[in-house]
Design a protein that fits this description.
heterodimer; A: 281 residues; mainly alpha; MetI-like fold; two-stranded antiparallel sheet; 11 helices; 75% helix; B: 250 residues; alpha/beta; 6-stranded mixed beta sheet; 4-stranded antiparallel beta sheet; 10 strands; binds adenosine-5'-triphosphate; binds magnesium ion
Chain lengths: 281, 250
């Protein structure tokens, strides 16, 4: 009886704490939705901004963020997954690989504005890509790589060693084992890592600030060497740089950005559950 | 002679000398049992026979292993072909994360077999040989993981049989199984030895005595005694073998 009471108290306490941790998220979401929803309209999503960005829509920023995310994926996904496969399946455990791992861990701790500065130096000036989608995507890729590598490597390592041994023992080569057994098993985890990394890239302002983001661009970018507007940077601009900005537009933009990120998350979940279902567990 | 092991020694990176100067000739169409206390080197020897030990941290290897007269450590050896020819069943049943059918066709597909009729045939034949066909023939596309432990182990046996190997290595294949499943596996082995060379590391002396046509007693990397199964278990020549069989150590 007494023990039962203690247990009930314990559960009650735990669920309160759990609720408290999600409370801020719910508040933020609720606030942005209530403040931003009135701004959302077909025009807001699909039109160019005008009147000093105080009217019109945010279409170029949406397209820009989409381009940047795709650009980041093009560079960081193949490279990141390949690096993870190398580290988990091929590389011996020696000083070199330990240094690589240490570098990856430390890279993910670097503030994003530092990546921005680095991208400015390397891609914009040294490689002469200019302030462009290309430079910004490459900068975001470097920032995203550590996330993709470490989550993918973790997912690969979680595949039981016995699967590899068995596969080899029925005459598979190492690469066949990786392609047919290890990768499919690790795929849900790898996809999660990719989406996590790309989500972060999509929401960052600092790395694209110097490398590819345009303050205002009355047209869509036409090539990878054009600068582009992007949602997070646009949000920064309209929130701090433009006086007398109608606040619905700010919250509307935030709402679109959040929706973009959440949609990607949901897509990731969908792909993961599909992958699971196809492999039957 | 199916397999000839000549002056074979094996040392791991950490300095453990797992096998010392082993000489052993293994006959086809018989069950040869390798037994002895833990750490004797039985598993290491098995893993050398299909070169699965290539994956381990081996420091030094000396001597030769001939299968059908071919030195398997020669550089020109096709290791994947060797592994198809020398099948292996492990102590813990490890089914691949696929359906029952795919577990069986996996190795064949890697070897280039694509014809559905051939694959179906191999699935049926191997399951029958492993005494599992009756239990699973109507759910071949279910995930293999859904089988019971004993069924999984017979599936593992079937998986190596699907490749039509010539030699089957079994490392304590029944250590996790109940007596009935164990009986089924042992019965299949007696059936299989008509067509295959079988090398078994048993999980007990009793199983060794039950199944052995020939038996080899391993003690700390050394082959102490090797001979006809019946004789070895009733009248061992070596004192150390006798002590172990009668339970005085190990
Ligand atoms: N991959 C490895 N790396 C280093 N040492 C190993 C490795 N595999 C086995 N050994 C060592 O080699 C010796 C023989 O081991 P092995 O597994 O071959 O013995 P076993 O006779 O199969 O024993 P058991 O009955 O416990 O299975 C042991 O001392 C073991 O510690
Ligand atoms: Mg062993």
């Amino acid at each position: 009886m007494n023990r039962n009471l203690v247990q009930r108290l314990g559960f009650g306490l735990l669920s309160t704490v759990a609720f408290l941790t999600v409370l801020p998220i719910l508040l933020i979401l609720g606030y942005i939705i209530t403040q931003g929803a009135p701004a959302i309209s077909w025009e807001f999503i699909t039109a160019m901004p005008y009147g000093g960005m105080r009217s019109g829509g945010i279409w170029p920023a949406i397209v820009g963020t989409f381009y940047l995310t795709v650009g980041t994926a093009i560079f960081s996904v193949p490279l990141g997954v390949a690096a993870a496969i190398y580290l988990s399946e091929y590389a011996a455990d020696n000083t070199l690989t330990r240094i690589i791992r240490l570098a990856i861990i430390n890279l993910s701790g670097i503030p994003s504005v530092v990546y921005g500065l680095f991208g400015l130096g390397l891609f914009v000036f040294f490689l002469k890509f200019g302030t462009s989608i290309l430079s910004a995507s490459l900068t975001l890729s470097i920032m995203t790589l550590p996330v993709i590598i470490s989550t993918s490597e973790e997912a690969l390592r979680a595949v039981p060693q016995a699967f590899r041994t068995v596969s080899i023992s029925v005459g598979a080569t190492r690469w066949q084992t990786i392609r047919r057994i290890v990768l499919p098993e690790a795929l849900p985890g790898i996809i999660t890592g990719i989406i996590l990394g790309l989500n972060r890239a999509a929401g960052e302002t600092a790395p694209i600030l110097f490398t590819g983001a345009a303050f205002f661009l009355p047209r869509l970018p036409g090539s990878p060497f054009d600068a582009t507007m992007a949602l997070p940077y646009h949000l920064f601009v309209i929130s701090t740089q433009i006086p007398e900005m109608p606040f619905q537009i700010q919250y509307g933009t935030a709402l679109v950005l959040i929706t973009f990120v959440l949609t990607m998350n949901m897509l990731a979940n969908f792909i993961r559950s599909r992958a699971r279902a196809r492999r039957q567990w | 002679m199916k397999i000839v092991i000549e002056n074979f020694s094996l040392q791991y990176q950490d300095g453990t000398e797992s096998l010392r100067n082993i000489n052993l000739e293994i006959l086809p169409n018989a069950v040869t049992v390798l037994f002895g206390p833990a750490g004797g080197g039985k598993s290491s020897l098995l893993r050398c026979l299909n070169r699965l030990n290539d994956l381990a941290d081996v420091q030094k290897m000396a001597g030769r292993i001939l299968i059908d007269g071919q030195d398997i450590f020669e550089p020109k050896t096709d290791v994947t072909a060797l592994r198809r020819k020398v099948g292996m069943v492990f102590a813990r049943p490890v089914v691949l994360p696929m359906s029952i059918r795919q577990n069986l066709t996996y190795g064949l597909e890697l070897a280039g077999e694509r014809r559905p009729s051939k694959l179906d045939e191999a699935v049926k034949r191997s399951l029958q040989q492993a005494a599992l066909w009756e239990e699973v023939h109507d759910r071949l596309d279910d995930p293999a993981i859904a089988l019971s432990g004993g069924q999984q182990q017979r599936l593992c046996l079937a998986r190596s049989l699907a490749l039509q190997p010539e030699i089957i290595l079994l490392d304590e294949p029944t250590s996790g199984l109940d007596p009935i499943s164990t009986g089924k596996v042992e019965a299949s082995l007696q059936e299989l030895k008509k067509d295959y060379t079988i090398i078994l590391v048993p999980h007990s002396v009793q199983q060794a005595a039950r199944t052995a046509d020939y038996a080899a007693f391993f003690l700390q990397g050394e082959l102490v005694e090797y001979g006809d199964g019946k004789e070895l278990f009733t009248s061992p020549k070596e004192k150390r073998t006798e002590d172990y069989i009668t339970g005085r150590f190990g």
